[in-house]
Design goal:
five-stranded mixed sheet
C-alpha cells in the first residue's frame, strides 16, 4: 500500500495498492469550495474491487484530513456510507 497523495491539479486523492489480482489505484475526485473538500466520487480499479482497498483508502483519507486540518463533505454514496460507519472521524466533516 502506497502513501495517499493529493493530485491538486486533477483535484484527486490517489493511493496505490497491491491486490490479489494485481496492482491498482483507489482515488477520490473532489471539488474545493471555501476551503472545504467535497468528495464527489470514490473508485477502485477493477483488480482491487472486493479486497477492502477502498475502505483502507477512506481511512487514509480521513487520517490525512485530520493531520492536515482539512474539512471534508462526502457526496459520493460510498464516502457517505463509510463516514456513517466510522463516526470516530466526524471531526473531519464540515
Amino acid at each position: 500500500m502506497g502513501d495517499l497523495r493529493d493530485d491538486g491539479a486533477d483535484q484527486r486523492f490517489v493511493q496505490d495498492f497491491e491486490g490479489e489480482n494485481g496492482a491498482g489505484q483507489v482515488w477520490a475526485d473532489y471539488a474545493v469550495r471555501d476551503g472545504v473538500h467535497f468528495i464527489l466520487h470514490v473508485e477502485a480499479e477493477p483488480s482491487l474491487r472486493g479486497t477492502g482497498a477502498a475502505g483502507r483508502f477512506m481511512q487514509a483519507l480521513a487520517d490525512h484530513a485530520r493531520q492536515d486540518g482539512l474539512k471534508l463533505v462526502p457526496r459520493c454514496s460510498y464516502a457517505v456510507a463509510w463516514f456513517r460507519r466510522h463516526a470516530d472521524y466526524a471531526d473531519v466533516l464540515a
